[in-house]
Amino acid sequence: MLPLGNRADDYGVCLLAIATNAALPGQDDYDHFRRGLDPAALRAFRKRLYQLRARWERQDPSGWRALLPAYPGICELLRRRAGEVHLAIATAKDRRAVRQLLETYGISDLFPKDCVLDKESGPSKRAHIAQIAERLACPPAQITFVDDKVSHLLDVSGLGARCLLAAWGYNGPRESRIAQAAGFPVCQLRDFEAQAFP
Q1: What was the pLDDT predicted at 2?
Q2: Band of pLDDT at residue 93, cut at 50, 70 and 90
Q3: In Å, what is the CA distance from 198 to each residue of 134, 176, 194?
Q4: pLDDT per residue as tens digits for the range 15-59
Q5: Which residue, 87, 94, 131, is CA-closest to 111?
Q6: Alpha-helical regions (H) of the chain
Q7: Nearest to 76 by CA among 105, 47, 33
């Protein structure tokens, strides 16, 4: 079972669980194991992971960007709908990396600078969405939040935002079941436009 992790340091937790043969049959077991780890060690792991990622990005920028292609049809869909809605990004990536990817995809003009909230903008997607609502002067209920992590949807839904699970991302059937049980629509690429822009 893959845990529902949220941060880069969850990779460290998983690697330690594998190295120590920790039996983690369920999410509660994973969460308990994680809580027992030294927070300073997890921060150090996260810092090192981002250092290595940044080095790889510097040494081979085109190779790095090639690992993160846009999903088929998404850029065209966003460009088609951009005049109807405000587009924003809430991400755990750093702002520079996000801007580079948007430029590579040819859609950087669709996302105003103050509507790209990165890992430095707040501790969670919930904090990001609250800031977006404030910046756009709209209630969270008017925001459609799309993410591939059901844990983010569960958190953000507390603000009143409409939440959709992107089934084409880093998730699987378990997260789709959890999302559906929580009342969140599960979108495939083929029906994303109809679901996100009703």
Answers
A1: 64
A2: confident
A3: 23, 20, 6
A4: 999 999 999 888 889 999 999 999 999 999 999 998 998 899 899
A5: 87
A6: 9-19, 27-35, 39-59, 61-66, 74-81, 95-105, 125-135, 150-157, 173-181, 192-196
A7: 105
Model pTM score? 0.84
Q: What is the mean pLDDT of residues 175-187?
A: 95
Cα–Cα dist 128/124, whole Å: 6
Pairing of strands 186-187, 116-117: unpaired
Contact 93, 118 (CB under 8 A): yes
> Is the CB of residue 7 less than 8 Å from the CB of residue 16?
no
Q: Are 99 and 118 in contact (CB under 8 A)?
A: no
DSSP-derived 3-state class of residue 173 = helix
Q: pLDDT value at position 1?
A: 58
Distance CA 74, CA 77 (A): 5
The closest alpha carbon to 161, from 137, 173, 144, 148, belongs to: 144
CA distance 36 to 191: 41
> What is the pLDDT, as a whole number, of residue 198?
82
- What are residue 147's DSSP bridge partners? 165
Q: What H or E segment, with its residue span, contains residue 186? A: strand 186-187
